[in-house]
Design brief:
The protein is an alpha+beta fold and about 375 residues long. It contains 14 helices and four strands. About 35% of the residues are buried. The N terminus is likely disordered.
């Protein structure tokens, strides 16, 4: 499970206090209403993300670059024109995909049997919070979710060649529907595991195994909505007698700290990381990582707290002194001390983060 320095998107599912019926086109306009319907009818959730102008993801741009015939004599304007032509082709293909499949009545009717449908259209002035939870990177995108909002699959149509083959095929809608139905088996598997996790009569090990399996098989981009399961894990073994709860405490701390960081409450985020690092639930590598996370926050306050930063860095180094990261932390300590001395001599305040090199993620 990824830990600090990767911003874990805030898991906000309730986007509206009012429960609405689906619109005239059969799609709900907010997640909360769609989720309520999905739970009541024991269905999955199919969430469609569109934009006024289809988005081009980095993966698509990389694919475009790979197909652009570059020569030594090619000018910048030539390359830009080629890229623009290819990007426009993808945009037109995506628009055609929507008109031929997702926006049709037959597609909606085929999906309604097994899914509550929700549609968000992103504009320059309106970006729904739900996009943060699922880290949407391109549009249109179709997310296949369990009724609890756990991601079972996503269709992003970000491979230009695959997109072209899909749109130009003779059974575009049928193929997409088959692909979606195939993901339903994953919904069943996830919901069965989540049920085991919440069944008090099951053994502690069995329940934790079920939660671990869901986490390990969830793409990192879509892990934030698993917050309720992390809380279940902690409630199963609050004293960490199994030695397996540390990762879940880390995950929950990341979410809490991220909320503070989004609100620019850096000191409060630092305290979350510090409290976690001081707990008995983490192993040496995790303690090192979260002391360092606290140091990063203290160092990036509006007025950097050098004393607290150095204290956290010292604890990070000592938590696992023989690790590969220990030397990098020592370099950060030396760097902070030099900055502290520099500031003491009347140097201007730094606008940029002042902690040294970022630690590589733990495996």
């Amino acid at each position: 499970m990824k830990r600090f320095l990767i911003v874990i998107a805030t898991a906000l599912f309730v986007l509206s206090s009012c429960h609405r019926a689906p619109g005239a086109d059969g799609w709900f306009a907010d997640f909360d209403s769609a989720q309520k319907a999905a739970k009541a009818q024991n269905k999955g959730i199919l969430m469609l993300i569109t934009t006024e102008q289809p988005m081009i993801s980095q993966a698509e741009m990389n694919a475009i670059f790979a197909t652009v015939p570059l020569t030594e004599s090619a000018s910048y304007d030539d390359i830009r024109a080629l890229l623009s032509d290819r990007a426009q082709e993808i945009i037109e293909l995506k628009a055609e995909l929507l008109s031929k499949t997702i926006e049709t009545d037959s597609f909606r009717q085929s999906c309604e049997e097994n899914f509550a449908l929700v549609h968000y259209n992103v504009t320059e002035t309106h970006v729904p919070d739900i996009l943060n939870s699922y880290q949407i990177q391109t549009a249109p995108s179709l997310l296949v979710l369990t009724k609890e909002g756990f991601c079972a699959g996503i269709f992003e149509f970000d491979n230009p060649q695959t997109l072209k083959e899909l749109v130009q095929g003779t059974n575009t809608e049928s193929q997409l529907l088959r692909d979606i139905r195939a993901v339903q088996t994953e919904i069943v598997r996830i919901e069965e595991l989540a049920s085991v996790a919440r069944t008090a009569s099951e053994s502690q090990a069995t329940r934790l195994d079920a939660i671990d399996t869901i986490f390990k098989n969830t793409n990192q981009r879509f892990i934030a909505p698993l917050e309720p399961l992390a809380k279940v894990a902690v409630s199963i073994d609050p004293k960490n007698e199994s030695g397996r709860i540390g990762n879940f405490y880390c995950f929950l701390a990341d979410i809490q700290a991220n909320k503070f960081l989004q609100a620019e409450k850096v000191t409060k985020a630092a305290r979350v990381y510090e409290r976690l690092a001081e707990s008995d639930y983490l192993d040496a590598a995790q303690k090192q990582e979260y002391y360092y996370a606290a140091a990063v926050c203290f160092a990036n306050e509006l007025t950097p707290d050098y004393k607290k930063t150095l204290q956290m860095l010292d604890k990070a180094r000592e938590a696992d002194p023989n690790s590969e990261q220990a030397q990098k932390i020592q370099e950060s300590i030396d760097y902070i001390k030099s900055m502290q001395e520099y500031a003491a001599n009347g140097a201007p305040e730094q606008d940029e983060p002042i902690v040294g090199p970022e630690l590589p993620p733990q495996e």
